[in-house]
Structure formats: structure tokens, C-alpha cells
Design goal:
By secondary structure, the protein is mostly helical. It is built from 17 helices and 3 strands. Strands 2-1-3 form a 3-stranded antiparallel β-sheet, with helices on one face.
Length: 406
């Protein structure tokens, strides 16, 4: 039988924790109440190291779209009455070689050895994350595995759509910047030297702005490899720094409060956060576990930390909305709707409505940002080119003045 770690309050109000053997979470709750303990958190015991030694925990990350399709198909097969092992065999035969096929084979083999689906999926943590495993466990215990898989598929569909919208918002200005750099570099390398030959033939000292542009052109032509190295190394260096813990924290803090893009990031993180909480709670996962899982999927360190602080208050028996209202990054509308959901017992529905609202807001914010960035980038690019053109024609204007005065 599976083992569970528990945290509970005794009659004195003190916290106790330990391990208990039971067939499911409901049995754990019943046993704890029989010991005059109030359950606060119940989680399945982590997989033993002996399993890890067998190589069952190996794996590679899988694409979100592939996992979403796999989940939808598994839900359909189980809903049709096909056993889990047979469903996994059918899906595994149709998958191309890769981490998902390997994980499917390992999960099927583990189930055939007598383990449950959730425990078997936990052996492949890089393919099936904690959210996925907790929902599968809730579906198994409630006898609605096909329904839970359907909810998971919908959740992943919405999550992938949200990611693509945010990525689209980030890619557009990046493409414009690359084009601007190429255009400016082309002018400096191929056009400016032609003008410079003309000035040299005239034998007249060019104006300061023109001389600066000519010097920049010479530097770019003669030391192009330095500029190219900087252009390539800077993005990779920034990316490497962001992938560190400290870098990610600093980047997330900067970007969520940044003008224009900050609103898109904040709204997308709130949409993902509330969608995750809604999906977990509606599937029977406890609030504390749901908060713990959702805090890791917010997509931004600032929001994740805000949720983690709220978890500590909820663990102490306080309402979820109360500590959430103290967080500046969480809008009042979110906390008010969560408070209503807590009082009416419909928190999952309220969280779902919040997620729907912010998903629409992200779409509108991306459109607004795109329409705002486009003219800003055009003005920026046009301004740089205008400066280069003026710098090149200034000597011609001065020559004209000399001729006119003569």
C-alpha cells in the first residue's frame, strides 16, 4: 500500500507531522481524525531511491503541445472503457521516438508491476510535473480519471495559447530591432564610405557630426569582427545570466514592473496562476497543495513569492484572500473574487472566471502593445537614419553656402 506524509493539528493546536500507510487520501484523513488530529496537508511519499537507481527517473523535457495531445488522447481512450495499460500501449505505439514515448513505456511497465498511474508517472518527473501527477492522483482516488485528464488537456491548451501570445509580443520588437541594426550597419558599411570619398576630393574639413559618422563607419569596416562578437555574445550572456537563480529573480522583478511589457507579463502570470489553482481545486487537490504547485507555475518570481507567502498564512488556518490582499502585485479584483469564492464554497469557479478574464486581457494587451511599439520602433529607426542622412549632407550644404557667398 502507498505511504503518505501528513501534517495535522492536535487538540492543543500544535502541528504534528509523520508518515501513514493507507490505500488513498480519504483513508489517511479518516485515520488522522480517529487519532483526534485535524488534517492540514497530505501528500504521497516521494519515490524511493531504489526506483531512481533503476534508471526510471531519467528523462528529457517534452514539448507542451505533444504532452497536451497525449493527455487528450489518453482521456478519450479511458473514457471509452479501455484499461490504462492498454491505452498506454496504444498511444506508445503511435508516438515517435523521443522522451514522451520513453516515458509512456516506463509508466506502462511500472503499472504492470503493480503501481498506480500517478506513482508510475512520478518516475518521469521531467515529463510529468507535480501538477500533472497530483491531478492524476486526485482522478484515480475519485474514480474520474478520464474527466481529470480532460481538464488537464484543456488546461494545457489554454497554457500553450497564453505562452504563444506572450512570445509573440516579445518577438515582434526583437525582429524590428534586428532589422534596424542591419539597416544602420548597411548604411555605415556601404553608403558612408562613398560620401567620404567625395568629401576627401573636395578638400574641405567636414562638420563634427559628419566626422563622427565617418569615424564610426571606418571603425565598423575595420573592426567588424569585434562588433559582430559583441552582437552575438551579449544576447547569449544575458540569456545565461537569466537562467541562473539570481539572474531570473532580477529579470522577473525588472520585467513585471517595466513599462508597456510589464502589464502583459503580469496579466499572463495571473492568468496562469488562477487557471492552475482552479484546475487543481476542482479536481480535488487540497488548497495548500494547490497553492504550493501553482506558486511554481506562475511564470514570474514576484508572483510566485507572493503566493508562497500566502501559503504560510493558509497553513496557519487563515483565509486565502486575506494575505493575498496585502500583495501589491495581486490586483484587488482578484482578491475580492477569491474572498467571495471562499465564502460561497465556489473558489474553483471564481478562479476560473478570473483566469478567463485575464486570458482575454493578455490578448488585448498584446494587441495594444504591438500597436504602440510599432510606431515607436519606426520613429526610432527613422530618427537614426535621419541623423545619418543629415550628417552626410551637411558638408554639401556648407559647400553650397561657400559657392553662394562667392
Amino acid at each position: 500500500m502507498p505511504q503518505y506524509d501528513y501534517k495535522a493539528k492536535n487538540i492543543k493546536g500544535d502541528f504534528e507531522s509523520g508518515e501513514i500507510i493507507a490505500s488513498n487520501v480519504q483513508e489517511v484523513m479518516s485515520k488522522l481524525r480517529g487519532q483526534k488530529l485535524v488534517p492540514v496537508q497530505v501528500t504521497p511519499k516521494t519515490i524511493s531511491r531504489s526506483f531512481a537507481a533503476k534508471g526510471l527517473v531519467r528523462g528529457k523535457k517534452v514539448k507542451g503541445k505533444d504532452l497536451q495531445i497525449f493527455t487528450r488522447q489518453l482521456s478519450t481512450l479511458i473514457n471509452a472503457g479501455i484499461p490504462v495499460v492498454d491505452s498506454l500501449r496504444i498511444l506508445g505505439d503511435g508516438l515517435r521516438e523521443g522522451p514522451l514515448k520513453e516515458a509512456s513505456l516506463k509508466v506502462r511497465s511500472s503499472i504492470e508491476e503493480g503501481r498506480r498511474l500517478a506513482d508510475s508517472m512520478a518516475l518521469c518527473p521531467l515529463v510529468f510535473d507535480k501538477l500533472y501527477i497530483n491531478m492524476i492522483q486526485a482522478g484515480e482516488e475519485a474514480g474520474i480519471l478520464d474527466v481529470i485528464l480532460g481538464r488537464l488537456a484543456i488546461y494545457m491548451e489554454k497554457s500553450e495559447k497564453l505562452k504563444s501570445q506572450v512570445k509573440g509580443a516579445m518577438v515582434y520588437p526583437a525582429v524590428i530591432m534586428v532589422v534596424a541594426i542591419l539597416v544602420i550597419a548597411g548604411i555605415l558599411i556601404f553608403i558612408i564610405p562613398r560620401f567620404q570619398e567625395f568629401y576627401s576630393a573636395a578638400g574641405k574639413e567636414p562638420p563634427a557630426l559628419t566626422q563622427f559618422v565617418v569615424n564610426l563607419s571606418h571603425s565598423l569596416v575595420n573592426n567588424w569582427y569585434y562588433y559582430l562578437g559583441v552582437l552575438i555574445s551579449v544576447p547569449f550572456s544575458v540569456k545565461a545570466y537569466i537562467e541562473t537563480k539570481e539572474g531570473r529573480i532580477q529579470f522577473d522583478k525588472f520585467i513585471i514592473w517595466a513599462p508597456v511589457i510589464g502589464q502583459v507579463i503580469q496579466k499572463s502570470s495571473l492568468a496562469r496562476l488562477t487557471r492552475t489553482l482552479s484546475t487543481l481545486i476542482s479536481s480535488g487537490v487540497g488548497l495548500i497543495d494547490a497553492i504550493d504547485i501553482a506558486a511554481r507555475t506562475g511564470g514570474n518570481y514576484v508572483i510566485e513569492e507572493a503566493l508562497s507567502r500566502c501559503k504560510e498564512s493558509v497553513t496557519q488556518g487563515k483565509a486565502f484572500a486575506a494575505p493575498l490582499a496585502k500583495e501589491k502585485v495581486i490586483p484587488p479584483m482578484v482578491t475580492q473574487m477569491i474572498a467571495i469564492g471562499e465564502k460561497s464554497g465556489t473558489m474553483d469557479m471564481m478562479l476560473s472566471k478570473i483566469a478567463d478574464f485575464y486570458e482575454d486581457e493578455v490578448e488585448n494587451a498584446v494587441k495594444a502593445m504591438t500597436s504602440l511599439i510599432e510606431p515607436m520602433m519606426m520613429v526610432f529607426l527613422g530618427g537614426i537614419i535621419a541623423i545619418l542622412v543629415v550628417a552626410m549632407y551637411l558638408p554639401i550644404f556648407s559647400m553650397g553656402d561657400v559657392v553662394g557667398s562667392g
